[in-house]
């Protein structure tokens, strides 16, 4: 499997081709077969993606996870709030599970206006030239979610979101999934357990360095490809909060989950500047208010979702669940300590020193 394979729905892919062509200042000649494929694809887009039954405006929100996750539930809550408060005049169409666009193309789709809102994990913003978002991936950086808030609700968070503007994007806010756990077909409680394992990672240099520091080999794969790669043995293990692990049925293909809480997984909600500016100020306010409430809701339920997923996992009995001792966790922390120093140049020295001040 090629790590950087485009994984979006073929119809959405065709739609992207059209959007990309239309966004060019002067249309280059396009091979006839590409136009035909693109037009056929657009015609096949699900009716729901093209128009909401009663809405004057339909906002398309694409994401890559299941509906019963903090992100999935937040997106659905957002839809309900917007549609209720606008009396159905503004519709929200949510595309979960990478059903329209996946990790490799959701940002591009947003920039081209093929969707209006996405909520990628913070690890995925380096794809659009913002490696400073990878600071959230630094292992053992946050002891709890209050520590995360010191960044996301403070000036550093605002500065990160402002960095999206030159990309034609608007960052509307952050929210949590929670802390990541390690899985494989063996317990991963201390550094020696990781040696030689191929571990699926998101497209983050910080997470890749973390896996290397533990003696594993990082393999970058889209989220939607992960379960299959685990099942076929392309990779041996991965990391994610339990809600993602459970809702992707990774418990059917991983015999051991180790509750390491070694890193944070969170998201930023992003929209397209053109779309955002095209809205009437009152609609923009309505949508933003609904979104902020949906994000607060996600932050409230994220822990519970992960706890419930862990309970369900215990009940399923397919996967052994391990908790590292304090000593084992200290060994893991020690092994990955070098990562921050190694990645200063990538994240940016000024971001690291601002981070250190906030975390003091
Ligand atoms: C997500 O929660 O959006 C996906 C995380 C991952 O790619 O591991």
Count every beta strand, where a strand is a DSSP E run of 2 or more residues.
Answer: 11
| Strand order, largest beta sheet | 7-6-8-5-9-11
What is the radius of gyration? Answer: 21 Å
Class per helix and strand makeup: alpha/beta
Helix content: 40-55%
Q: What are the segments in which pLDDT stays under 50 over at least 5 consecutive residues? A: 1-8, 20-51
Order of helices and strands: HHHEHEHEHHEEEHEHEHEEHHEHHHH
- Relevant CATH superfamily: Bacterial extracellular solute-binding protein, family 7
Task: Give the class-level CATH name.
Answer: Alpha Beta
Strand content: 15-25%
Summary, kept brief:
The chain is an alpha/beta fold. The chain contains 16 helices and 11 strands.
What does this protein structure show overall?
- The protein is an alpha/beta fold and 360 residues long.
- It has a single domain (3-359), classed as Bacterial extracellular solute-binding protein, family 7 (D-Maltodextrin-Binding Protein, domain 2, 3-Layer(aba) Sandwich).
- The chain has 16 helices and 11 strands.
- The protein has helices at 10-22, 32-43, 47-50, 70-85, 106-112, 145-152, 155-162, 205-213, 223-232, 242-247, 273-278, 281-316, 326-335, 338-342, 344-347, 349-359, and strands at residues 57-62, 90-95, 117-118, 169-179, 181-184, 198-201, 217-220, 237-240, 256-258, 264-272, 320-322.
- The protein is globular.
- It binds succinic acid.
- Succinic acid binds at residues 64-65, 71, 121, 177, 202, 223, 240, 244, 265.
């Amino acid at each position: 499997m090629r790590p950087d394979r485009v994984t979006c729905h073929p119809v959405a892919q065709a739609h992207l081709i059209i959007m990309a062509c239309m966004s060019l200042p002067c249309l280059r000649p396009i091979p006839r077969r590409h136009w035909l494929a693109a037009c056929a694809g657009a015609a096949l887009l699900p009716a729901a993606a093209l128009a909401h039954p009663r809405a004057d405006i339909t906002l398309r929100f694409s994401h890559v996870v299941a509906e019963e996750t903090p992100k999935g539930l937040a997106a659905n809550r957002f839809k309900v709030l917007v549609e209720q408060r606008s009396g159905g005049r503004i519709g929200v169409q949510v595309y979960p599970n990478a059903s329209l666009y996946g990790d490799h193309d959701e940002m591009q789709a947003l920039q081209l206006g093929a969707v209006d809102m996405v909520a990628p994990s913070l690890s995925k913003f380096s794809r659009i030239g913002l490696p400073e978002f990878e600071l959230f991936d630094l292992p053992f950086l946050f002891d709890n979610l209050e520590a995360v808030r010191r960044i996301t609700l403070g000036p550093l968070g605002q500065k990160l979101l402002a960095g999206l503007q030159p990309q034609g994007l608007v960052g509307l806010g952050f929210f949590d999934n929670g802390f990541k756990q390690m899985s494989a077909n063996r317990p991963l409680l201390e550094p020696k357990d990781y040696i030689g394992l191929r571990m699926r990672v998101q497209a983050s240099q910080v997470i890749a360095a973390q896996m290397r520091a533990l003696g594993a080999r990082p393999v970058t794969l889209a989220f939607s490809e992960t379960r299959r790669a685990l099942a076929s043995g392309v990779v041996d293990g991965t990391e994610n909060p339990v809600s993602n692990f459970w809702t992707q049925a990774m418990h059917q293909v991983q015999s051991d989950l180790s509750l390491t809480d070694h890193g944070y997984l969170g998201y930023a909600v992003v929209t397209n500047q053109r779309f955002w500016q095209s809205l009437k100020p009152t609609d923009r306010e309505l949508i933003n208010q609904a979104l902020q409430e949906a994000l607060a809701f996600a932050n409230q339920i994220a822990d519970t979702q992960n706890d419930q997923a862990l309970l369900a996992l215990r009940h399923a009995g397919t996967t052994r669940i391990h908790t590292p001792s304090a000593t084992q966790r200290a060994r893991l922390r020690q092994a990955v300590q070098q990562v921050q120093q190694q990645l200063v140049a990538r994240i940016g020295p000024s971001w690291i020193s601002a981070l250190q001040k906030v975390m003091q």
